[in-house]
Amino acid sequence: MHLLSGFLFLVAVFQGCKTDCGSSTACWDDDLRLAKLEALVEHLQRQVSDLTAAKVETEAELKITQDMAKTAVAGCSNKWTLKRTEIVFPNLEKLALHQQTPTYIETMPTPLPNNTRAVIVQVFCNFWNSDGHAYLDVDIHQEGNEDGGVASVENTHYRVYANTFYYEVMVPWNGDLPDKLKFEVKRSYQTGGDRNWYRLRVVGYILA
Fold this sequence. Notes:
Strand 4 and strand 5 form a beta hairpin. This protein is elongated. The chain starts with a helix and ends with a strand. The chain is built from two helices and eight strands. It has helices at 2-17, 25-75; strands spanning 81-87, 103-107, 116-127, 132-142, 151-160, 163-172, 180-190, 197-207. Helix 1 runs antiparallel to helix 2 (25-75).
């Protein structure tokens, strides 16, 4: 705004100074000053033109950004819903593995809704006997959906006495793939008695 005001002022000065004063030394000085002023005016004209073009470009970019933001918000308008359930897998009810690394593939008893995006797996450790160890590392994922994501759980309970441990993990789910969960045991170590074990269940799923 200041640049434009200065430009208009210089134009007015320039136009007011363009008079015919003959061939005196004063006129030569005036002509020199007018030539410099004319060059300055042309420079300012170019700056004003560049600023105008930049303003138009900035407004266009801003509109595109606003449109993209609106589209992104509209795409995220779907609501996520948590559903609680309890799916028991007999093979995973009382895991008491010691230095073994088996793989379990469990099929859901009933198909999950097509819009399921994740299942929630419970990891529960029951440790009753004293002075024992309970280690269990497992990779959990939907069979055929490794690219969707693998939930890796790691449990190291050393010399535990009469404790239980519980947490839940989310496993990505693709409704176009089979309703099967794969549990790959990576490490196990269990000592202290037969009342020490792990349990893995599906206790919920997320819809979107």
